[in-house]
Amino acid sequence: MLEVAPMLEVAGLQVAYGAIQAVRDVSLTLAQGELVTLLGANGAGKSSTLMCIAGALPAAGGSVRLEGADVTSARPEVMARKGVATVPETRDVFPDLTVDENLQLGAYTRRRDTQGVAEDRARMFEMFPLLAERSGQPAGTLSGGEQQMLVIARAMMSRPRVLLLDEPSLGLAPTIVDQIFEMIAALKRSGLTILLVEQNASKALAVADRAYVMRLGRIAAEGTAAEIAAATDLKALYLAG
Amino acid sequence: MAKNLATIAILSGLILVLVVATNLLGVRLYDRIAINLCIALVLVLGLQVFMGNSGILSFAHIGFMGIGAYTTAVLTIPMRMKGMSLPDLYPILAGVELSPYIAILIGGLVAAAVAAAVSYPLMRLSDAAAVITSFALLVVLHTILTNWSEMTNGPRTLFGLPRATDLNLAAGAAILAVVAAVAFKESRTGLLLRSTRDDEVAAGAMGAHIPRLRWQAFILSALFAGIGGALWGHFITSFSPKAFFLKETFVILGMLVIGGANTVTGAVFGTIIVTVAFESLRALESGINQAQIFTEQVVGLTEIVLALAMIAVLSLRPGGLFATQEIGPLFSRLVRKKED
Amino acid sequence: MSFFLQFTIDVLALGGAYALMALGLVIVYGILRLVNFAYGELIMVAGYSMYLTSGSGWPWLVMAAVAVLMAMLAGIATDYVAFRPVRAKSVTAVLITSFAFSTLLQNAALLFISPRPRNVPLPEIFSETVSFAGVITPARNLITIAATGVLLALFSWLMRRTVLGIAMRAAATNFTMARMLGVPANLIISSAFAISGLLAGVVAMLWIGRIGAVVPGIGLGPLLIAFIATVIGGMRSLQGAVLGGFVLAFIDTTLNFTLPQDLLKFRDAFTFSLVIAILLWRPEGLIKGPASGQRT
Questions:
Q1: Which of A211, B161, B267, C284 could be a cystine partner for A228, CB 3.0 to 4.6 Å?
Q2: Alpha-carbon distance C130 to nearest alpha carbon in chain B (angstroms)
């Protein structure tokens, strides 16, 4: 039987900033529809890994494959066109653009499908009534939680096949964090493949299928979410990281 | 230290060879080219002192050259000629007639003083803001030179400067400029300033007072420019404010960038290469014009070639020919390799 | 009253031209954070295009359209020759290459056309005068005001109502994020240069309309004006550029009326000292541009 290529396959990835190597050797796979979380302490190289997959950072070595096709160091706009949507850690709304314009840009790759875009926009406003209320307001005036909702909604406007989510809970109030994780779970149920980078390990492991733990630029442990959650050395990995 | 001395020795030696060779040849045309080259060296090394160490592009340099040239003009034009060449001159200055050699130094000092007075607040700025202010400063200086009729005879040509710059004087000034540029680069100020070039934030955090460091370099740079301008004034003997604007800025900048702004060696080699190329192209241009191949005069060819060369060098070798290393260390490594 | 009206028309006509010049510079600066020193030469290119097509017998409007198109192409060429090869390397390098490209174009005009002024065809109406409400003014001024109005409206529509415009505004705040949404970097940059060329082309018609001839150095004046106006208005704000243009026109016109003759020749020194002062005391200009970087 022919084996189906995984949705996303990263092998031996390296990322460097000048002489400093942030990612030394990272390999991971995401099957179609899987939610995989990438855990690790601050500075372990999680975000660099994610931004490199997204095409925003060049790879210094290794490869990234999307459904078997080599996309290593592809330009970010090419990755977006191939169906990989990215929500960076820095929660990059365009502050001077209105909420509506932000969403409209999210659908840039399918801008000719005006009807579909309009439908999705209505769907997003249904899902996030707060955004609907503020659709004409500059995105910079939203609260942190609202901005996070907006960037996720904006990413979904492209109807991606893979979603790369970087620390969606960072700096948000606990109730909003709960909402965000509910939303991630809902996105997973809809069949989306998700790579979730998180520091909030317990929350992430609760929604994920599988997990990788990064330490000093390498994968230090991997397994199902349950296995990783049960592993006693989890805390040690973080503290040492 | 020995390596710095080697750099100075090699670069000065190069200038001396030029002087000796020119004297031996005894062709007046080459004499003119060699003097121009030495004056250009003073100017380009001056720009290197500021741009190379601070990493900030300055357009104002040629303006300070103009200040030097006009200062020495006012101080040295013979009394009997002043009525004609500077008819509106303030009476106090009408009786002044100094030796050109003193006046050249004063020209440099006045340029440095003007730089010291106006530039301190500008030194806080980086990137585009710094470049636009230096551009604005060039325009301000140019406007003043063009319109301050009392001191400059306005936009008209100023004539009557005694011809005092010969090859020995120009070459001497160029060698001094090499020594000063290397000495500044390796001085405490120079080292600190270079660290701000590479990482402004980190150097600031370490306690480097960035505006003051840049200011010191800028003043020294203006001193070179003023002296260079004064030397040029006593070589060419008549000029107008047009000589101190964008076209000249472009040439000086081209010399520095092609050679490599970060090194003194780059400044010297860039100046030599561009001067040689320029003179050959000029000769070609005038050859074409004399042969009357085209109905119109051929002008601008030289600048086009220089522009293309600058773009090519910056695309292929962004740091210029000598991007980081001075010739001293490079040379000693070469020697050691041979011995092995 | 009629003096007041005269003054207003002067300021609006001059300010309109200034505003368009500034806008053309800022559209590129906003996105790339890089100053295009070859901007003035786009105006020169449009001027020479008019001169070269003047014998063609085409209607004036066709010649003007061709000239604007040439300025747009020259703008895009600036990107490919001066910006793209060195953009990633250093800011200083780009400033120097764009300065070099400016010299290249100017000297190409010197070499291949002539150092002497060349006449540019202008429609009759440019040299006519109009009188109303006790004011006599060149029709050219009214044309400039109208053209500015139309162009600014068009520009504002493009930036607010089209996906390309929205993407350009987004790229001006966070280029990488815009690219991660699928906005191609090259398209945005080329569009910015093309718009810059379009504005320069229209400015060329209005500007050359004042003198009726083109010389290789014609771009320097507009470049300097664009510098001052953008510094006054804020280097990164499109509205600021427009406002800066009108403010500068107001200052210039006022100085023209009030400065004594022997100080008037120092006008450039005054306005450029003003530029330096503004950059020092209010580096962001009158209108702050879009926030750079991120908010959390």
A1: A211
A2: 35
- Whether residue A36 lies inside any domain: the answer is yes
Question: What CATH number should be reported for the domain holding residue A44?
Answer: 3.40.50.300
Query: pLDDT of C146-179, one tens digit each?
Result: 999 999 999 999 999 999 999 999 998 888 999 9
Compute the nearest-CA separation of A232 from chain C (Å): 33
The residue of A47, A57, A92 whose CB has the most chain C CBs within 10 angstroms, and thus the best one to mutate to test that interface, is A92
Taking Cα atoms as reference points, which of A40, A36, A7 lies closest to residue A23?
A40
Is residue A97 situated within a structural domain?
yes
Model confidence at B284, pLDDT cuts 50, 70, 90, reads confident
In a domain, A3, yes or no: no
Domain that holds residue A47: 8-240
- CA atoms B154, B156, B162, B164: torsion sign: positive
Q: How far apart are the first and last CA of chain B?
A: 23
Per-residue pLDDT tens digits for C54-79: 888 899 999 999 999 999 999 999 99
Q: Which of A53, A84, A89, A94 to mutate: most C Cβ within 10 Å?
A: A94
Tokens representing B239? 């000029």
| Cα A93 from Cα C244, distance rounded (Å) | 28
A47: nearest Cα among A90, A103, A94, A4: A90
Identify any residues that bridge with A214 across adjacent strands, giving them in sequence order. Answer: A40, A219
Task: Look at the block and give the residue holding tokens 């964008």.
Answer: B246
Q: Phi-psi category of A216—alpha, beta or left, where left has phi over 0 and alpha has psi -120 to 50?
A: left
Rounded to a whole number of angstroms, the distance between the first and last alpha carbons of chain A is: 42
Residue A101: closest C-alpha in chain C? C166
| ipTM score | 0.90
Element (H, E) at A183: helix A174-189
Is residue A61 within 8 A of residue A22, CB to CB? The reply is no
Half-sphere exposure of B185 (CA within 13 A, CB side): 29
The DSSP symbol for C80 reads: I
Q: Of C31, C173, C177, C287, which to mutate for an interface test with A (greatest number of A Cβ within 10 Å)?
A: C177
Residues of C in contact with B246 (CB under 8 A): 220
Q: What is the CATH number of the domain that holds B231?
A: 1.10.3470
A49: tokens are 């890994």
Within a domain: A2: no
> What domain range is B313 assigned to?
2-339
Number of independent structural domains in chain A: 1
Q: Is the pLDDT of residue C272 over 50?
A: yes
B257 contact residues in C (CB cutoff 8 A): 96
Please answer yes or no on whether C29 and B128 come within 8 Å at the CB atom.
Answer: yes
Q: How far apart are CA C11 and CA B14, in angstroms?
A: 58
**Number of folded domains that form chain B:** 1
Query: Would you call C88 an interface residue with chain A, using a CB distance cutoff of 8 Å?
Result: no
Instruction: Provide φ and ψ at A65, rounded to 5°.
Output: -125, 135
B20–chain C nearest CA distance, Å: 35
Nearest residue of chain C to residue A54 (CA atoms): C180
